[in-house]
Amino acid sequence: MSANKTAGAAQRRPEDTRPVTEVAVGILIRPGGEFLLCQRPAGKPYEGYWEFPGGKLEPGETVEQALGRELEEELGVRIREFRHWRVLEHDYPHAYVHLHFCLVPQWDGEPAGLESQAMAWLSRPATVGPLLPATITVLGWLETEA
Hints:
Helices cover 18% and strands 34% of the residues. It is an alpha+beta fold.
């Protein structure tokens, strides 16, 4: 298995000419183990589905830079501590994504839905839905590592 894929990841078809979209994703975790999920805003693919916050890497950005920018834009928080955790490739109908999941145990500020998105602090198992398909995979990983 190559270093950039995770077991169970989508297998990219050779005929698939869509570009790979690189995405930084933050899993904000409170000391008690609760994690933050956000609902996708209106007008985006999978509108109303729940996911971990984050977004696309801009040209020339690192995962760390994109994660910091996205969490500040979406939630108004600044990362104090994070670590790369896992990578997952997922084939959505609208995009083939390469998701870089990062655990974020410390940040400055109180998360707020700056894009008018609903938010929820949850324990395992998640009690909101529907969940974005890749989010379901990550929740399974969190279950096994709890």
